[in-house]
Amino acid sequence: MALADTLADFFEFEAHDTDLRTEVVAGVTTFLTMSYIIVVNPTILAPALMADPTIANAYSMAQVQQMLAVVTILASFAGILVMALYANRPFGLAPGMGLNVFFAFTVVLGLGIPWQTALAAVFVEGIIFILLTAVGARRYIIELFPEPVKFAVGAGIGIFLLFLGLQQMQVVVPDPEGTFVTLGEIANSPVASLAVVGLFFTFVLYARDVTGAILLGILSTAGVAWGLTFAGFYDRGVLTPETLTGAQYDISPLAGAFVEGLRDIDPVTFTFVVFTFFFVDFFDTAGTLIGVSQIAGFLDEDGDLPDIDKPLMADAVGTTVGAALGTSTVTTFVESSTGVEEGGRTGMTALVVGLAFLASLAVVPLVAAIPQFASYMALVVVGIIMLQGVTDIDWQDPTWSIAGGLTIVVMPLTTSIADGIAAGIVSYPVIKAAVGEAGDVKPGQWLLAAVFVVYYYIQTSGMIV
């Protein structure tokens, strides 16, 4: 009882009208709903690392995925520990969906920036976050960015994730007739067929509010894939990884790699990447905190979260530690709302989530056995969930509809979160002026739009690559 009393006093159970049992149940619930990231994050980031010949010649894809799984767990634990012990809030953190896709597919594979340099950008972003949070400046930065863009980012990332997931599941494929993409031959593709069945099974679980629906969907689909393989219907390498390797817990190739990434950087491109990581993480985290806090009843009468700088510090520390270890930006997860709905109100809930992440180190070798298409089902489910952000946009206002609409549409069509954000930021002051509301545009917003115009002119003219 002494330990229980100590925890109750430290986390202020009485003040938050909760108890140890409620907090533990809430923590386990949150972990189960967000634990899919342990499987999905390595799947998304691994191709970016394997594009480096030094990594590809020394390690298999399975080994890289296991390294990334370990890093994902450790980075999540670091951020969650700050959330639990410093902020005393019931929120879980992990490398963010969308941010990891931007890291791998836009920055590394798209722009051709070395993964070490991308990690350096995330590290710099984390340091900036820590400094801004420490002086209480993060809440002021939000005032510079147009509201339509802020509210549209989540939905844009959602479509981006959904589109990428469908491609990896072979449901959407390149169109040789010239319309770029089309529906794949699902009936003739074992991967696409099983992926579609697994996806709808996951949808059913999610619709019925089954705890851990996404994780259960991934594991069930992987189990069927292995069952069909062992039964002799398909050879290894069709539905399942062709080979499996021993446990890989050595993360030394990733840890500290950001230091190398700081050498010989292109200042313009590097600054843009840092800015984009900063922007997306800033508003993704702020939006999640406000949304989940509303469910928990944490907001004051003005709709603000008291002491918001404390939970913001958690993602800043998590991002910095994660980049140092070798993963993309760490952010607060919206899945934290499931634990809040179970009654979690204090940092004890977060502490349970963190300890569960730490315990999951024991199953890291199983990550390599999950077929990639099964992991990518999570992107489709999460992408659809994120579409709810479109309801926050005033579609009757041309400024909102154009800036918000461009932000949402340009992201998947260019496979770049950054391009979507830029489209919204550039269009906002122009449309505001066109409708006679130029006085509502801040000088900083005009400046930001001008910077993007110059950058994209230089980029698309071939002056930089």
TrEMBL record:
<dbReference type="GO" id="GO:0005886">
    <property type="term" value="C:plasma membrane"/>
</dbReference>
<feature type="transmembrane region" description="Helical">
    <location>
        <begin position="64"/>
        <end position="86"/>
    </location>
</feature>
<feature type="transmembrane region" description="Helical">
    <location>
        <begin position="446"/>
        <end position="464"/>
    </location>
</feature>
<feature type="transmembrane region" description="Helical">
    <location>
        <begin position="213"/>
        <end position="234"/>
    </location>
</feature>
<feature type="transmembrane region" description="Helical">
    <location>
        <begin position="149"/>
        <end position="166"/>
    </location>
</feature>
<comment type="similarity">
    <text>Belongs to the nucleobase:cation symporter-2 (NCS2) (TC 2.A.40) family. Azg-like subfamily.</text>
</comment>
<protein>
    <submittedName>
        <fullName>Putative MFS transporter, AGZA family, xanthine/uracil permease</fullName>
    </submittedName>
</protein>
<dbReference type="InterPro" id="IPR045018">
    <property type="entry name" value="Azg-like"/>
</dbReference>
<feature type="transmembrane region" description="Helical">
    <location>
        <begin position="373"/>
        <end position="390"/>
    </location>
</feature>
<feature type="transmembrane region" description="Helical">
    <location>
        <begin position="268"/>
        <end position="292"/>
    </location>
</feature>
<keyword id="KW-0812">Transmembrane</keyword>
<dbReference type="GO" id="GO:0005345">
    <property type="term" value="F:purine nucleobase transmembrane transporter activity"/>
</dbReference>
<keyword id="KW-0472">Membrane</keyword>
<keyword id="KW-1003">Cell membrane</keyword>
<dbReference type="InterPro" id="IPR006043">
    <property type="entry name" value="NCS2"/>
</dbReference>
<dbReference type="InterPro" id="IPR026033">
    <property type="entry name" value="Azg-like_bact_archaea"/>
</dbReference>
<feature type="transmembrane region" description="Helical">
    <location>
        <begin position="348"/>
        <end position="367"/>
    </location>
</feature>
<feature type="transmembrane region" description="Helical">
    <location>
        <begin position="24"/>
        <end position="44"/>
    </location>
</feature>
<feature type="transmembrane region" description="Helical">
    <location>
        <begin position="186"/>
        <end position="206"/>
    </location>
</feature>
<feature type="transmembrane region" description="Helical">
    <location>
        <begin position="93"/>
        <end position="113"/>
    </location>
</feature>
<feature type="transmembrane region" description="Helical">
    <location>
        <begin position="402"/>
        <end position="426"/>
    </location>
</feature>
<keyword id="KW-1133">Transmembrane helix</keyword>
<dbReference type="Pfam" id="PF00860">
    <property type="entry name" value="Xan_ur_permease"/>
</dbReference>
<feature type="transmembrane region" description="Helical">
    <location>
        <begin position="119"/>
        <end position="137"/>
    </location>
</feature>
<keyword id="KW-0813">Transport</keyword>
